[in-house]
Amino acid sequence: MKTCLVVDDSKVIRKVARHILETLNFTVREAGDGREALDSCLEAAPDVVLLDWNMPVMTGMDFLRALKESGIAQKPKVVFCTTENGMAYIRAAIEAGADEYVMKPFDRETLQSKLQIVGVA
Amino acid sequence: MLGPQQSFASPGAVNVIGALLEQRTGQQIAANRAWRIETALKPVLREHGLDTLDQLIARLAGERHGPLADAVINALLNQESSFFRDAGVLEMVAEAALAIQAEHPGRRLRVWSAGCSVGQEPYSLAMLFEELAVSRGLAMPEIVASDVCPQALVRARAGRYSQFEIQRGLPVRRMVSWFDSENGEWVVRPELAKRVQFRCHNLTRDPAPVGKFDIVLCRNVLLYFSASVRRSVFDTLHAATRDGGLLVLGAGETVIGQTEAFRPSDRFRGFYVADSGQASLTRAAVR
Ligand SMILES: C[S@@+](CC[C@H](N)C(=O)[O-])C[C@H]1O[C@@H](n2cnc3c(N)ncnc32)[C@H](O)[C@@H]1O
């Protein structure tokens, strides 16, 4: 079973994502901001990170940069999942090394399709 | 709860609507899905100020080919699709295109997406071919895409997709390379749009388009045709395919036991090769 780390400061979003991911046979872990997410990755790298953009303490972008520099051997795939739906944001995320991008709101099919594209589903 | 039994449609009305769909498109409505007719047609009724299917039928009797009939067909057809549907199959189409080009250098390849819905399939092909043009020297093939449904073609030509549609199957890098964002929708860029020619074409009625194709995709279209309609559609597809050209069907669709016009390809697993001179044999066998 693959592991997905859901990083979002909204408990509701984490719950929705968890529910969908579990129906897709993922083991789900949660983090409320980038800092928590980084700690979680350092402890044990998941297969994929579902990453919000705007979060307190450490944003999604800062997390992505920190992950790059962390020296984690098995880098997880990173899928942004955010309401920032403008072209400039999407390009910036790709530039920073994100593997995929989900624009909220999303449904099960969107998420499944994106996880297939990055090769974890 | 409102079950399928408490419908406002008489069985007679359902039969008439089903017959209209079959006559216009060859598509049959499975008996166990007949109740969905009502749900599907509700928006059409509302838009035309009608209350019941019987009223709709009365109106259709006078105008079997007008915009109302088109709207009914549009509502009843299954137009589900997505970008890069069965991505592995499309990758193999790309490989096949390169192989055919290597065997016939100097020839411009022609590819037909038959039953293209609102355009995801032909635009996916166009993106793949554009990438291969850069990375492996493919000469850009001509892409013809067709559907029986005029409304679907209007949407396909506009190349405008909702956030949900654009995110299904389309990798984000391709999305930003080939689409512009406009008020929450995603619109195909002109340089990609110009690679696809859309045409209205009814597989069960119209003769094969002029000129032969090297690769024909007809995916997830044949499913609801009767066996005899399917056989004649295979003949049309065969007439459109170059000798030795390839036919690509949807996952779970096959030519085996349905036609002698195509046989499984040895080289491209899951694809079918047009056999020379076989279509007329099939036709003769049917008579
Ligand atoms: C389920 S969609 C498949 C779209 C695409 N080929 C794919 O696989 O994703 C089937 C399409 O076939 C079209 N279709 C149905 N009957 C047809 C006919 N007789 N001639 C041409 N197209 C037809 C429908 O309008 C619909 O857009």
UniProtKB/TrEMBL annotation, chain A:
<dbReference type="Pfam" id="PF00072">
    <property type="entry name" value="Response_reg"/>
</dbReference>
<dbReference type="InterPro" id="IPR052048">
    <property type="entry name" value="ST_Response_Regulator"/>
</dbReference>
<protein>
    <submittedName>
        <fullName>Two-component system response regulator</fullName>
    </submittedName>
</protein>
<feature type="domain" description="Response regulatory">
    <location>
        <begin position="3"/>
        <end position="119"/>
    </location>
</feature>
<keyword id="KW-0597">Phosphoprotein</keyword>
<dbReference type="InterPro" id="IPR001789">
    <property type="entry name" value="Sig_transdc_resp-reg_receiver"/>
</dbReference>
<dbReference type="GO" id="GO:0000160">
    <property type="term" value="P:phosphorelay signal transduction system"/>
</dbReference>
<feature type="modified residue" description="4-aspartylphosphate">
    <location>
        <position position="52"/>
    </location>
</feature>
<dbReference type="InterPro" id="IPR011006">
    <property type="entry name" value="CheY-like_superfamily"/>
</dbReference>
UniProtKB/TrEMBL annotation, chain B:
<dbReference type="InterPro" id="IPR000780">
    <property type="entry name" value="CheR_MeTrfase"/>
</dbReference>
<dbReference type="InterPro" id="IPR022642">
    <property type="entry name" value="CheR_C"/>
</dbReference>
<dbReference type="Pfam" id="PF01739">
    <property type="entry name" value="CheR"/>
</dbReference>
<dbReference type="InterPro" id="IPR029063">
    <property type="entry name" value="SAM-dependent_MTases_sf"/>
</dbReference>
<feature type="domain" description="CheR-type methyltransferase">
    <location>
        <begin position="20"/>
        <end position="269"/>
    </location>
</feature>
<dbReference type="GO" id="GO:0008757">
    <property type="term" value="F:S-adenosylmethionine-dependent methyltransferase activity"/>
</dbReference>
<dbReference type="InterPro" id="IPR050903">
    <property type="entry name" value="Bact_Chemotaxis_MeTrfase"/>
</dbReference>
<protein>
    <submittedName>
        <fullName>Chemotaxis protein CheR</fullName>
    </submittedName>
</protein>
